[in-house]
Amino acid sequence: MTNPIAPDLLATGRMPIKPRTGVWRRLVKRPLALLGLVIIAIVVAGAILAPWLTGYDPNEQMFDGLTLEGAPLPPNASFWLGTDLLGRDLLTRILFGARTSLIIGIVANGVALLIGTLVGVTAGYFRGWIGGTLMRFTDLMMAFPALLLAICLAAVLQPSLWIVAMVIALVNWVQTARVIYTETSSLAEREFIDAERTIGASAPRILSRHILPHLLPTIIVWGTLGISTTVLLEATLSYLGIGVQPPTASWGNIIFENQTYFQAAPWLVFFPGAAILALALAFNLIGDALRDILDPTQRGRA
Amino acid sequence: MSKGVTSKRTGVFAPAVSTTAGPVLEISGLTVSVRGEDGERPVVSDLSFSLARGETLCIAGESGSGKSMTALAIMQLLPQPAARIDSGTIRLRARDRGDMDRSDIDLALLDERRMRHIRGDRIAMIFQEPMTSLNPVLSIGRQLIESIEAHTGLSRAEARRRAIEALKAVRIPEAESRLKQYPHELSGGMRQRVMIAMALALKPDVLIADEPTTALDVTVQGEVLELLRDLQREHGTSVILITHDMGVVAEMADRVIIMRHGRMIEEGTAADIFARPQADYTRELLAAVPRIGTGVGRRKSVESEMRGSVAVVNDLHVRFDLHGGFFGRVNRRVHAVEGVSFSIAPHETLALVGESGCGKSTTAKALAGLVPYHGDIVIGGRNLAGLGRDERKAVRRDVQMIFQDPYASLDPRMRVGDLVAEPLLIHGIASKEERGQLVAALFERVGLSADQMELYPHEFSGGQRQRICIARALALRPKLIIADESVSALDVSVQARVLDLLKELQREFGVAYLFISHDMAVVENISDRVAVMYLGQIVEMGTRDQVFSNPRHPYTRRLIEAVPVPDPARRRPRFARLDQEIPSPTRKIGEDPPKLALKDLGNGHLVAVS
């Protein structure tokens, strides 16, 4: 194939551009990111291997799981994390709950981020009537009480884990859209975007290659922050009877079931709470590291 | 060649200020270092100088020379915690008159609380960007009065009186009513005057001005510099003027310090530095300064190239609607470009000059397809207005643009090699391997090495980045390159080299340039033809010689005269002041600006007649 532009320039043969060095390799090199990865690996492993890890059934109300007065047991040799009000093993419930919470945290949150980013980027880049319509709709969603909306949606659709995840996503994308919109509209004003347009870049190309990479830090931060919010929103929904139905365990509903007994049996709130915290922290650590790794200006001179 | 211009400049030397008293500020062995990723790095090393009473000392140098750091060190305003003074003394001499400041003070040892009394009162500073150094939510009156109150203990009424005096001193008309205005209601020049008023209201011993006119238009720059000179003469203030512009140095300085990489390269009186520079670097610096009247005549005659035009712009209008009122209807319009027409021949450089807000950049943007317009833009014989999207994309390939700020116009998250390859990718030119080779060749052509393709934009200096932008613009082999203030953000020595590169590339590839600039000296250096814009319309257009040797429109003359000459022996005696500000291009609906008619004075020299 001959080149119509500059055949004379082809004379000096040079190597083409090298591929990027692995993000994964640089991620594992950071101790904090590695810690985050380890925590997530433990949670995922725990969720998958839950039936074989403890030897208890998560929903079985055990006779020896309660004191003679009927109070839950604190952590001890046979029930490592203690038992709950109905005499069920807390560790087993947390392990099984990890399944629900991971799915909600990742799926619901992921879908919310996806919708939010799409709406925000489109509205922020195109402005005009498209942007106006999208953002007014977003404002409307924001003004509408999220919980009420979730209740309506959950009532119409038959509650199941996936439906709950979708409901949470449909409620949670709004804030992301707002933030992404603001950032996109300021990015769209930057000179390098004008420069892209002068070389003939199409809108999809500008959006995917030049706007999205700059939004990554924001998306990552919102993504990690959203994990804990969604897990707790799921708990709220279960509490209202429209979330994951008992006796199925989720971290959120373990906390909700037991929060009134916080003073008498603190472990019942402490352990699932610690699990949510650890998961959110792990995603946060990875998010932080990813943000730095993906931003070339954060790296020293090559 | 431009006799008409230079004869106006042979003024007398500014009368020497009495510098009988001893130095007011003495700096010795000053070393400032900044902590970065790769450890501590000195930004000012072992700098010593003294400033006499009533003297103007210019510290000149290119970016990274440590001149601003020196100023910040004197003010004890170094960015914390990264930068600190390692060693050296900054001795401020006692006032003769004051009773409390009898002894000398070493500013480097002063704590923050005592330093606050020195700042503003004894040493004041004005910065480059007057918009960011004024608080946008407070009226200028409040800012002025509060700073006076804080330092003097005058009553509010007295402080107010003093504020009005200060505004009058910097020749702000209707000073009293201006007190109620907010920074955004003032033009850049007015804002800088307010900053000067604020700095001088407390009658400091030393005024440090860090690039005070760099952000201003040339005609405004002339006024502000003259104002500084007059005020200094009246108050006997010592001034440290920090600038990169050797023209400003020649205009203002009694003594000059040339700095580079944090060290003093040369020190001397302004006359000596310009007439007999000792250091090689000073000579290079002076040689790189573009001067009006030195543009080499270009051998190519324009008429031989008139056979076909690369681009023809006819009756171009760009207006921006402003919404207002209760229903958000359009009630005013910014008439950014009003009926501009010109054509550019192959191999030709047409310069579009004017001051900020004159519509030159908007014209460029319309041509590059970035703003909607009315009128005709014909590129390579095809009128853009009648084309579909794909055709327009194909035609646009022939027009590329280089922006002003090389830091802002490259996506910081892409490798520069990918950035240069991108236009080829978008237009589907060449296979992947060929693209790599093409880009490598382009890199070498603009004076970079092909190994640098893997790096990111932030890893390059400003001049190198502008070379990357040039390579990118060149990748599609366009017929026309629009250079929008493309060298104004660069240091003079870098600027000279980039201009040379642009000229070389023009010879080699035969590309035409639309060169947009506010800098008349640069324009004279590079252009074949010049069009002067004022308030959205062209007021004068002709060949370079026609416009520079025989400027006919008063605005053109004013622009040329306003450029500071880098020669202290040719200081301008007096700069004609404009009594009113440049009118706003914003107009109510239905109030269209009067259209200027251009008259041909012969050989295509067009001048607006009113």
UniProtKB/TrEMBL annotation, chain A:
PROSITE patterns, per the entry: ABC_TM1
ABC transmembrane type-1 domain sequence ranges: 98-287
Keywords: Cell membrane, Membrane, Peptide transport, Protein transport, Transmembrane, Transmembrane helix, Transport
GO biological process: peptide transport; protein transport; transmembrane transport
Compartment(s) of residence: Cell membrane
Record organism: Mesorhizobium tianshanense
Transport keyword on record: yes
Parts of the chain that traverse the membrane: 32-53, 102-125, 137-156, 215-244, 264-286
Listed GO CC annotations: plasma membrane
Family membership: Belongs to the binding-protein-dependent transport system permease family.
Membrane topology: Multi-pass membrane protein
Protein's recorded name: Peptide/nickel transport system permease protein
TrEMBL record, chain B:
One GO process term, biological-process aspect: peptide transport
Keyword ATP-binding attached: yes
Pfam families named among the record's database cross-references: ABC_tran, oligo_HPY
Main localization category: membrane
Ligase is among the record's keywords: no
Subcellular location: Cell inner membrane
SUPFAM superfamilies: P-loop containing nucleoside triphosphate hydrolases
Database matches in InterPro entries: AAA+_ATPase, ABC_transp_ATP-bind, ABC_transporter-like_ATP-bd, ABC_transporter-like_CS, Oligopep_ABC_C, P-loop_NTPase
Domain ABC transporter: residue ranges: 25-286, 313-560
GO cellular component, as recorded: plasma membrane
Annotated keywords: ATP-binding, Nucleotide-binding, Transport
GO molecular function, one term: ATP binding
Membrane topology classification: Peripheral membrane protein
Entry's family note: Belongs to the ABC transporter superfamily.
NCBIfam families (alphabetical): PRK10419.1 (NF007739), PRK11308.1 (NF008453)
Name under which the protein is recorded: Peptide/nickel transport system ATP-binding protein
Organism: Mesorhizobium tianshanense
